[in-house]
Design brief:
The chain is mainly α and about 120 residues long. It has helices at about 30-45, 45-60, 80-90, 95-124; strands at about 75, 75-80.
Length: about 120
């Protein structure tokens, strides 16, 4: 049995003139938004976890501070140590927030450069 393979074009995006070219010029707004929200989610994760621990402690009327572990009875069990650990995760934000901010600045610069290049290419 012989299969015939159609010849491949050298340009991957031959059928889509808006994506012709190489590199970042072919990236769409959708991908930039996905990357933006992923960076915000990952960089802010320690802060989200800390706020969640505070909300749970507040909802159940527990005291939560960084000085010591306070007992927090939820459903007959003590979750004070777990909430304390989650609250202390906020200190990782010292590293993740500046890294995330830098990543967002780079992403915005790439986004601006991409759209400027696309605008200049479309003007021709």
């Amino acid at each position: 049995m012989v299969f015939y393979a159609a010849p491949r074009s050298r340009c991957r995006n031959l059928g889509r003139p808006d994506l012709q070219g190489s590199g970042l010029a072919g990236m769409s707004l959708k991908w930039f938004l996905i990357l933006f929200f992923l960076i915000v989610l990952i960089a802010g994760a320690p802060l989200w976890v800390t706020m969640g621990a505070g909300l749970v402690a507040d909802y159940y009327g527990c005291s939560l501070n960084e000085g010591s572990i306070q007992p927090c009875m939820i459903g007959g069990e003590d979750y004070g140590h777990g909430l304390y650990t989650l609250m202390m995760m906020g200190w990782f934000g010292i590293a993740t927030v500046p890294i995330g901010f830098t990543a967002l600045c780079i992403l915005c610069a790439v986004f601006a450069l991409t759209w400027i290049l696309k605008f200049l290419r479309d003007r021709r």
